[in-house]
Amino acid sequence: MAARESLTLTSADGTPFAAAYAAPEGTPGAGVVVLPDIRGLHPYYVALAERFAEAGVAAVAVDWFGRTAGVPDGGTRGEDFDWQAHIPQTTADGIDADIVSAMAALRERHGADLPVVTVGFCFGGSHSWRQSGGDLGLAGCAGFYGRPSLVGDAADRAHLPTVMLIAGADQATPVEDQLALAERMRDAGADVDAPVYDGAPHSFFDRAYGDWSEACQDAWAHVLALTDRVARR
Predict the structure, then answer these.
(1) Beta carbons of 23 and 109 less than 8 angstroms apart
(2) C-alpha to C-alpha distances, 232 to 113, 125, 226, 227, nearest whole angstrom
(3) Which of 54, 68, 113, 170 has its CA 20 to 30 A from that of 88?
(4) What is the torsional sign of CA 113, 76, 45, 157?
(5) Pairwise CA distance, residues 114 & 217, whole Å
(6) Are 122 and 38 in contact (CB under 8 A)?
(7) 72-85 confidence digits (pLDDT tens)
(8) Whole-model pTM over 0.85
(9) Residue 137: in which H helix or E strand, if any?
(10) DSSP code for 201
(11) What number of other Cβ atoms are within 10 A of residue 97's Cβ?
């Protein structure tokens, strides 16, 4: 890994928000905007940005809460952060504006032609899938255990390569609903990769990694297959 840095980025509406940047040695073929779960920029997502860098991908992990909670001291959100008070105040437009700022930060450092994908988790996974039907200039999107309801009508405009990592024992969102979303997005024209990890719980990739290491390794391979697919050559 060549670089890692805590950033304060400015969104399109002028809002400062926290982010974490990491980059590999050499020239990355692709970039990732990491979209966290409801905890925002938890230290886990800083470490995940660094893991992407170790895999040869430049990454920026973003915080959701610049508009309502400011930039946190130390740059990350702790376990005591009251996300329940702030998640309802997020908006799709604000999230998209923050993604655009993160994409710009990656391209300023690695070239205007850098292909960028989103990779999200739970709340962030939902908004990553939503990007398949968006027009932010992304090359693809991947999400773990999202909610189809947060994707909404964007599913009918889906056109980007999309990876849906589905926990087979997800208690938050029925697997059937996620698979139905995958079919809806395919019908719209998106190429959707939707592996189901039988028996795996919601948050298996982060909070339950020790019990689901084989599933986590396979899911990571699916994510890196997406970054490799979109990478500039």
Answers:
(1) yes
(2) 8, 24, 12, 10
(3) 170
(4) negative
(5) 26
(6) yes
(7) 998 999 999 999 99
(8) yes
(9) none
(10) P
(11) 20
